[in-house]
Design a protein that fits this description.
Layout lengths: L1 H4 L3 H8 L4 H12 L6 E5 L8 H5 L3 E6 L2 H10 L6 E2 L12 E7 L8 H11 E12 L5 H22 L4 H11 L4 H11 L2 E8 L4 E7 L4
Helix pairs in contact: 7-8
Bound molecules: S-adenosylmethionine.
S-adenosylmethionine binds next to loops.
Length: about 220
C-alpha cells in the first residue's frame, strides 16, 4: 500500500492535515533534542519527510523503512540522507546503536506495536530516548466530534481527488479510530520497558508526542 502512495505522499499530507504536519514535525525534532554528533534512528521514515528536519538540526539521522517505493522516492528526493531498508519488527541494527529513536506516523501502521517498541528499545543505548509522534484522541469533546466526522467523511473524499490510491486513506481513517489514546499508548511504552514516559498533545490531541527513556543497565 505504501509503495503506491509514495509519489504524492508529501503533497497529500500537507493537504489533509491542513498544513499542520509541519508544526508537528518541528515539535518532534524539539522533543528528541538531538545534540550535535548524536545518532538518531527515524523508523518508518517513508520518503524521509520526518528525517530531513533532524538533518537540518545537525543530527546524524538514519531513515529506515520497509517499503521499496517509499525508499526509492526518498533516495531520489533526499540523496543526502543514508536510507536503510529494514522492518520495524526485526531492525537491521546492533543493540544500543542509537542515542535516540523516533517514529512519526508509522507506529500505527506496524503490524505488532509492542514488538516494534521492544525493537526500538533494543537498538537504543542505555539512557537514550524515544519519541513517538502519532495521531491520537482530541481531549476536548466538541473537537473530538468534529474530528471524527472529518475522518469518516472529509478525509476519504479529499483523498479521492488528490491521491493516487484513495483506498489507503480510508485505511488511514480507520487506523486512527482504532488506535489507543494517549494514556493507552503510554501504558504500552512502559510495559515494554521504557521509563520516564510522558506525553504532550499537539493540535488539541489530534496528534500526541510520547517520550520515554531506556533505563541505564
Ligand atoms: C504514514 S508513513 C510515515 C512516513 C514518515 N515517517 C512521515 O512522517 O512522513 C508510514 C510508514 O511506515 C512504514 N512502515 C509500516 N510498517 C513498517 C515496518 N514493519 N517496518 C518499517 N516501516 C514500516 C511504511 O512503509 C510507511 O512508509
Amino acid at each position: 500500500m505504501f509503495d503506491t502512495v509514495a509519489p504524492r505522499y508529501d503533497l497529500v499530507n500537507d493537504l489533509l492535515s491542513l498544513g499542520q504536519d509541519r508544526r508537528w514535525r518541528t515539535a518532534t525534532v524539539a522533543a528528541v533534542g538531538a545534540r550535535p554528533g548524536e545518532t538518531v534512528l527515524d523508523l518508518a521514515a517513508g520518503t524521509g519527510t520526518s528525517s530531513a528536519p533532524f538533518a537540518a538540526a545537525g543530527a546524524h539521522v538514519v531513515p529506515c523503512d520497509f517499503s521499496p517505493g517509499m525508499l526509492a522516492c526518498g533516495k531520489t528526493r533526499r540523496p543526502d540522507l543514508p536510507f536503510v531498508a529494514g522492518d520495524a519488527l526485526h531492525l537491521p541494527f546492533a543493540d544500543a546503536s542509537f542515542d535516540a529513536v523516533t517514529i512519526s506516523f508509522g507506529l500505527r501502521n506496524v503490524a505488532d506495536t509492542t514488538a516494534a517498541l521492544a525493537e526500538m528499545l533494543r537498538v537504543t543505548r542505555p539512557g537514550g530516548r524515544i519519541v513517538v509522534c502519532e495521531f491520537s484522541t482530541p481531549s476536548f469533546e466538541p473537537l473530538r466530534t468534529v474530528y471524527k466526522e472529518y475522518l469518516v467523511r472529509a478525509l476519504p473524499a479529499v483523498a479521492r481527488v488528490v491521491s493516487s490510491d484513495p483506498e489507503s486513506y480510508v485505511y488511514l481513517a480507520d487506523s486512527i479510530r482504532d488506535w489507543p489514546d494517549q494514556v493507552g499508548l503510554g501504558r504500552l511504552l512502559r510495559r515494554v520497558g521504557w521509563r520516564l514516559v510522558a506525553y504532550r498533545n499537539l493540535s488539541g490531541g489530534i496528534v500526541a508526542l510520547h517520550r520515554g527513556v531506556r533505563p541505564a543497565d
